[in-house]
Amino acid sequence: MTSPMTTHPEPDRQRLAIAILLFSTVLWSISGAVLKVLFEQTHLTATTMAGYRALFAGLALLPLGLWRGGFRLSQLRPLPWLAVAALSFCPMMLTFVSSVGYTTSANAILLMYTAPLWVLLLAPWLTGDHAQRRDLLGGAIGMVGMAAIVLGPALVGQKQTDTEVAGLLLGLASGVCFAAMSLALRRLRQADPVAVTCINNLVTAAALLAIAAMRGKLWCPWWAALTLAGLGAIQIATPYALYCWVLRYMTPQRGTLLSLTEPIMNPIWTWMVVGEVPSWATFLGGAMIIGGLVVMIRGQRPAREAPAGEPALQRSGREKDAPTAA
Helix (H, G, I), strand (E, B), or coil: what is residue 220? Predict the structure, then answer.
């Protein structure tokens, strides 16, 4: 039994945790650039790419989930919410990858990060959670930013192609699916997050690759397969495993704030690799979305630091709030 007296984790351990988390967000952020290259250099569909990426991510997480003992049925209850999480994760990944193909990577990742705003709207009816004033303020700022990205160009008379509009709508859909998955994960707080994420990825892979096979789109070049394997194992599985370790030594609020470097770095990598430059509406709306999220996160009640030797997540119960890599 642990002592009630709380102590702060060792400063060196905290600094290491911050460095590892920032490294993880860098890995998460490369998805846009790599997917853009695959769209430009191959004829792969978004369904095929999302399916293979999820397959390799799930296979990479499987040994860790087994080692943690997270696949016991008793630890995955309630099963209906596990099904909701998996059924939300699948369209989330598909719509995000599709959005990257149709619009800028910056628009895709920023619109996916509107998930907390949708959670704010849906939570009172689905989970009974009610927003605080600071949540409402941050949500309002984020919603204005979202409107700036989607509607800004049209309001100033700039024409948008049907492809661009489709990309924006798919980005919004990925945010809504992300929100639905987040609400489901709140009901799975006792489940192992690695096991849940592994299941989500494997279910997604089975569904999307089955669709790709029926359409005759399952084949891909060997170098593209290796790239997708790297995206799954290195860009999704590795940083997620590191994130779960990192949150043992810092509060979830700090971890979530540092994770906001992902939507900032994602467009930078894409610009460096393929020369894609976001529009003024993306810069304006993105700044407001990230600003709104910061207001919401800073308003959360901080979790207590864990006593020496006890993981912080055992006290906070918030490991399930770890972001899902795009």
Answer: coil
**Residue entry with tokens 């399916």:** 51
Largest CA distance in the chain: 65
**Nearest-CA neighbor of 149 among 204, 107, 207, 94?**
107
4: tokens are: 């009630």
DSSP per-residue string spanning 146-180 = HHHHHHHHHHTT----HHHHHHHHHHHHHHHHHHH
| Residue 50: inside a domain | yes
Record the pTM.
0.85
Q: What is the DSSP letter of 75?
A: G
Does 244 reside within a domain? yes
What would you report as the CA-atom Rg of the chain, rounded to the nearest whole angstrom? 19
Q: What are phi and psi of 173, to 5 degrees?
A: -65, -40
Rounded CA-CA distance 78/218 in Å is 34
DSSP one-letter code for 68:
T
Q: Which residues contact 28 (CB under 8 A, 6 or more apart)?
A: 235, 236, 239, 259, 262, 266, 323, 325, 326
Q: What is the number of domains present in the chain?
A: 1
For residue 131, what are its two tokens? 């927003």
Band (pLDDT 50/70/90 cuts) for residue 214 is very high
Q: How far apart are CA 67 and CA 86, in angstroms?
A: 21
* C-alpha 18: how far from chain center: 19
Between CA 98 and CA 255 the distance in angstroms is 28
131 lies in a domain?
Answer: yes
User: CB–CB of 278/107 below 8 Å?
Assistant: yes
Does residue 2 fall inside a structural domain? no
The alpha carbon of residue 128 and the mean position of all alpha carbons in its chain are separated, in whole angstroms, by 23
169/114 Cα distance (integer angstroms): 13
* pLDDT per residue as tens digits for the range 82-138: 999 999 999 999 999 999 999 999 999 999 999 888 988 887 777 677 777 888 888
- Domain hosting 85: range is 14-321
Pull the structure tokens for residue 113: 């990060």
